[in-house]
Every structure is written in C-alpha cells, then in structure tokens.
Amino acid sequence: MAEAHVLVFPAPAQGHLNCFLHFATGLLRAGLHVTFLHTHHNLRRLDAEGAADASPRLRFLSVPDGLPDDDPRLVDGLPELMDGLRTTGSAAYRALLASLVVVRAVPNDDDDGDGFPPVTCVVADGILPFAVDIAEELGVPAIAFRTVSASAVLAYLSVPRLIELGELPFHDDVLDKRVRGVPGMESFLRRRDLPIQCRHLTATTTHDEPLLTSVVAATAHSRKARALLLNTTISMEHPALTHLAQHMRDVFAIGPLHAMSPAPAAATSLWRHDDGCMAWLDSQPNMSVVYVSLGSLTVITREQFTELLSGLVAAGYPFLWVLRPDMAATATGGDALLREAIHAAVAGRSNRVCVVPWAPQRDVLRHRAVGCFLTHSGWNSTAEGVADGVRMVCWPFFADQQINSRLVGAVWGNGVDMKDVCERGVVERSVREAMESGEIRRSARRLSEQVKRDTADGGSSALEFERLVGFIRELSKVDDEPTLRKPMSK
Question: Domain tally for the chain?
Fold first, then answer.
C-alpha cells in the first residue's frame, strides 16, 4: 500500500489559506504526509518555516502566480490574479507535481533528502479547476475543496438554472424579491442575498462579469473531482449539503476545521498580529466589546467609514476595530487619518476603543469581553463566530458573503443582517440589537453547542473527516475509484 501523501493547493487569498492550513493540520494528525503549495509571493509573507517545524511530515513549496512582485494583489485585481494562476501558475504546477509523483528506487544526487513519499492525492481549491485536471492527467486522484459555505456553492451551481428560469438577470431593482431557483432556499433567499456580481448582469449570460463566470464554471467543474470537501457541518447547512450531494461524486462536510484542527496562528496570516489588543480586552467587562473586522479583502470608502464609526460610537459600547492599512479607499497613509478620526470620536474615553492593523481573531472571539462581532460575513469569520457562540452584525462585501449574512439573520437567528445599508442609525440599532437581544443570544448559544457536538469525537464532522482520511488512503492504494460513499444523514 502506497503511503498517503496529499498535495494541497489553495487559492492564494487569506481566507482560503486559513481553511487549507487547518485542513492540512487535520491530515497531519491522521498520520498523512502533506505538501502545502503556496504562491511564491505568499510564501515569502508567511511564517511557513515555523509551521513546518511542527511536523516532519509537512513541507511548503510554491509556484508563481504570474503577477509582478510589486503588484498589491488587491480585490479589484482578482481577475488578473486568476488569469496568472491559470497560465503561469498552472505550467509551474504541472512540472512540480510531475516531479513529486516519481518513485525513485534509488536516491540520486538530485534528491532533497526530506524523506517524503510520492504524492498520491491532490486536494485543490475548487476555484482552481486546472489543478484538478492536471493532477488527473498525471494519474493523481484529485479532490476539490471549496472554502465558502455549502449554500454559496449551491447558489453558484444554480446560476445557469436561474438564467433559464428568467430570475437572472434582474429587470428591476426590487432586491427583496424572493429567488425560487436555488433548491432548499426558496423560503428565505432574496435577490440581494445572491452573490453580489449577480446584480451586475445585463444579459442572459455571465460573460459580462468575469469573476462570476470563473466561479460558476469552477463550481460546475467540481462534479469531475473525486469528491467535494466543504468546511461546514450538517447541522448548519443540511439542506444545501443534501442538494449538492445529488450533483457531486461525493460530498464531505468536515468543518468548522478551526474547531477540530487549528493550525498555528502565525502560519495562517499574511499580516502580523497585533497581540496588544488582548491586553486591552482583558481590561474590559464581560460581554461588553464590539469586535469589528471586515476581513482581508474588503475596501470601504471614507463615507462608509464615517457612518460605521458614528454608529459604533452612538451604540455606546467599547469596540476593537481591525483597520488594515489597505482597507480604506483613500490616499496612501489614509489609514493613519482614519485612526486619528476614531480616537477623536472617543476623545476623553481612550480606554473605550482599540484599533489594530490585524488581530488574532480566534483568540479575540473566544475572549470573555467580546459581546458581538461586526463582520463582513466571510465564511471563515462566520464559522469562527458560530463555533464560539458570538452574536454577529453582518455587513457583507462580495462573493459568498451575501448568502452567509442571510443565514445568520434569517435561518440561524444568531445575529443581524445589515447588508446594503451603511447609515449610522442602522449601525447603532443593529449593534444594540445584537448586544441586547436575549433571543439572538440564545440562538447563538444553541448553534454553538450543536457545532461543538459536531466537531467533538464521534460528532458528524469528526466522523466525516475520518471517512475522508479513509477515502484518501483508498485513493492512495488503488487506481480504481473507491466505493466508500454513504448517504448523508442529519
């Protein structure tokens, strides 16, 4: 039996890296070898060496992303990044993977001496379909892993049907109209809850929205992979998982991974944590702080910043704000001006606010002082908030975040969905509702307790991860597709 060795290849964005590193940690705990494939740019930014020291079965390699070294790799450059990965990155990936599947009977002078067996399986980001195709062409079984919610994956998969039904594109601006073409979500999904690029379609095709075109095609391509992995749990997204299972060769709900196999924080972040915020939290009363973090890609205008700040100050709670240097759509150095504006708004109450460029979010959300989380509703942040029972105020930015915020506000009931509005009065009311509502507090606690059961030994997600490890070992042992599929039960 070949020794199982998994090459994991995430898209080079912070949220994807977080999820894949937790996943890799779980594979290492199960005794598998892991090669983690970064881009050159990201590997230079991360503390990969320290993470690799944690296990002799983990190594980090990299391929180019096709962009110049000085490219800022911001959200508006995502189409160019994806193009670079499809061209320059895919060629380098093919050559690298071909070298990693070779079995050398006798070591030669070119061996690196790291003792790694040949790669026997690839787990590639679902939005990098070329990584699945190339692996299979080289005789390596490939699995797709989507780092967004199962509900978002199902919505992307349903876009062609929405166009066929005439629900896309929109012919008016009634964003609260229900969407009927995404199975299992008919009772709560509105136009405004679809991935935001859907609002920009002008014809019965996605070609005028390149990013949407790319993601919709990649989602459909996941049908070709040996299986689809999702960082979720059956208790959170059972209807979406059930419908997805009808379209994929197999589906594994193996999350939230950070709750089962947390990776070292330094290895997952492209930004350096400012740990000083933890001492500030220590000085605050229990459940009193609003934690504000809009993720790694969100960009806000000066006007949006002003409305968010005014609403937070009016709500009257102390707040911890993660303000990335590249988050504000202002001139270079604009983040310093925004920091000054925050401190001016709470003049005389300096201990009521803490502003940092990046925070150790998992530690923050677990802190006794945090009462609610004003979030962009990225799936990692959503899953982390859910697992720790933190109430949320959701202000989504793009992609899957619109659906995630709807789950929080209308399905799970553990927070307030504030999408499409950035007005100080709404911010104030939403924060107060999340902080003061007993119903929201109870819903957040119930969901957290269920997720803890799911991720504990014998829970649904833990069992799914064990099934996945067996699936990978079978793929590593034989060429034929394994017959390990079983019905997904609630």
Answer: 3
Please check whether residues 253 and 369 belong to one and the same domain: no
Residues 116, 227 within the same domain: yes
Looking at the fold, whether 98 and 237 belong to one and the same domain comes out as yes
Phi-psi sector, 295: left (phi>0), alpha (psi -120 to 50), beta: left
**Which residue range forms the structural domain that includes residue 44?**
5-149+214-267+453-477
250 is catalytic: no
Query: Is the pLDDT score of 367 beyond 90?
Result: yes
53, part of any domain: yes
**In terms of pLDDT, which residue wins out, 86 or 480?**
86
As a whole number of angstroms, the distance between CA 456 and CA 145 comes to 22
Query: For residue range 72-119, what is the model confidence (pLDDT) as tens digits?
Result: 887 778 888 889 999 999 999 999 999 999 864 334 444 444 689 999
Peptide bond preceding 256 in cis form (omega within 30 of 0): yes
In sequence order, what are the residues at sequence separation of 6 or more whose Cβ sits closer than 8 angstroms to the Cβ of residue 171? none
**Kind of pairing between the strands at 370-375 and 353-356:** unpaired
Domain at 237, CATH number: 3.40.50.2000
Do 162 and 14 lie in one domain? The reply is no
Catalytic residue among 5, 16, 33, 273: 16
Q: In the annotation, is 22 catalytic?
A: no
Which of 179, 194, 210 is where one domain is finished? 210
Neighbours of 424 (CB within 10 A): 17
User: Which pLDDT belongs to residue 208?
Assistant: 77
Measure the N-to-C terminal CA separation of the chain; round to a whole number of Å: 34
Question: Active-site residue among 38, 41, 65, 125?
Answer: 125
User: Span 55-62, mean pLDDT?
Assistant: 93
